[in-house]
Amino acid sequence: MNGTTVVSEQGGLRVVAYPGDNKILLAMSLDAAAIDEKTQNLAGFAIFRTLAGQPETPLRNRIGFEIGVTQATTAQDRKWTPSDQAPFQKFRWIDVPQDFSAPITYRIRVRYFTGKGFQLKDGPQVTVTVPPI
Prior knowledge:
Layout: E1 6-10, E2 13-19, E3 24-30, E4 41-50, E5 57-58, E6 60-61, E7 81-82, E8 92-95, E9 104-113, E10 120-130
Antiparallel strand pairs: 1-2, 2-3, 3-8, 4-5, 4-9, 6-7, 9-10
């Protein structure tokens, strides 16, 4: 099996996608100039997915700014929030789509805090199209 990666960069955001048999690892990095405490206070990453022939949808996060997960949280209690509202606060994310037999396009956007509570604003974004291996 040959390893394949897809790389995209824009505005200090770099995303590398590593496809596997039935999952994709998305690795994000930001230049130091793309972050500061006043105007570019990093909240996380919004990730949108487009499957062949379907509309773009945001991946959902089980942890939000006002909704958390504890030991006592059951599957029925979980509230999933779109990642443009509750960004992923990791620099890597594994997506396990139901069908990875055709290329999948991801749009990853940096989300910053505005300084007004949990309000967010957009930062740089990149798009990567990942072929199945």
